Amino acid sequence: xxxxxxxxxxxxxxIALNHKLILKDLGFVNAIIVSNGEEAMxxxxxxKPDLILMxxxxxxxMDGVDVATQIFSKYRxxxxxxxxxxxSKLIDRAKxxxxxxxxxxxxxxxxxxxxxxxxxxxxxxxxELEKSKKKLAEESSNKDKFFSIISHxxxxxxxVIMSTADFLDVEYDTLxxxxxxxxxxxxxxxxxxxxxxxxxxxxxxxxxxGRFEYNPKIINAFDVIFRVLNxxxxxxxxxxxxxxxxxxxxxxxFCDENMLELVFRNLVSNAIKFTPSGGNIKIDVKNNKDxxxxxxxxxxxxxxxQDLKKIFRIDINFSTIGTNNETGTGIGLILCxxxxxxxxxxxxxxxxxxxxxxxxxxxxxxNKSDLGVLKNAx
Length: 378
Hints:
Layout: E1 6-9, H1 13-25, E2 31-34, H2 37-47, E3 51-55, H3 64-75, E4 79-83, H4 88-96, E5 99-104, H5 109-171, H6 177-208, E6 217-220, H7 221-231, H8 233-238, E7 242-245, E8 252-255, H9 257-273, E9 280-287, E10 291-298, H10 305-308, H11 331-342, E11 347-352, E12 356-364, H12 371-377
Helix pairs in contact: 2-3, 5-6, 6-11, 7-9, 9-11
């Protein structure tokens, strides 16, 4: 028995029933009959069959070739044409419509079986090729993004460092101690920005190439966020930002510990960066049946609806300046998206200009929930 669904498009009822009987003998028990092109298009829209047997000479507004052209261009479903005539012009039209085969009525079940197997095999190969094309296009886009960041975001801080160092070298004897210290801090901050950028780019590229060690297991999420908040304690204290951690100390989650730390580092760092002095940041957690929902909420400058659509997109070079003129590259949120989706989770943001932002992501509770998604993501 074969579970493949086959749609028979035939306006002569007896012939359609005969096709269905032949298919049943071949083990294709899931065959559906429609009598015209309009019904075929409506059925395909809702059900997406695996293969279509299409009569060419349909007696309605559209013949079989017209119907097949529209269906194949939109849904890429393999179509075998069936007709009582072997007209060369008709065959040429059928080939252009995306034909996977052409059969002259009457035919025996062995011929039909061979044609169906070839059509399904061909469709499988074409689907794999289409997936490969999309993957290559995505990798090309990733490469463009990589070089765009290098050429733009790496060039700017390097230029600042070089020009500041040149000025310090030439004017050193004429500058006061305070002025020298200010210039050294500019160089220091520029070097930090370059390091952060390169670290993000390297982690992102390692994940994209499958070279980032991925070891999901049950871990204590509180320990991870505790380390991250300690890491940024000096930054938050400098801006007098109050951070409220509402995470349960015994909260466990199924993920890679190093990857989760990267996500928290990026989201907490961004929250501090875009929250003005004296603001607030809150870490919230919601415990669902199969997943844990984490939220990093800030009282910062917020994000416009237009920019909210860009922040996780690899094909758009988007970055903004923090409340203390902290620079960014936008690579951090893209990295977070890659990590969370690799774990079978989701990440999104909610924000309102002038009122702050909420970054939310989900992770599975244990190695049984979302296990199928996890396997597909590795």
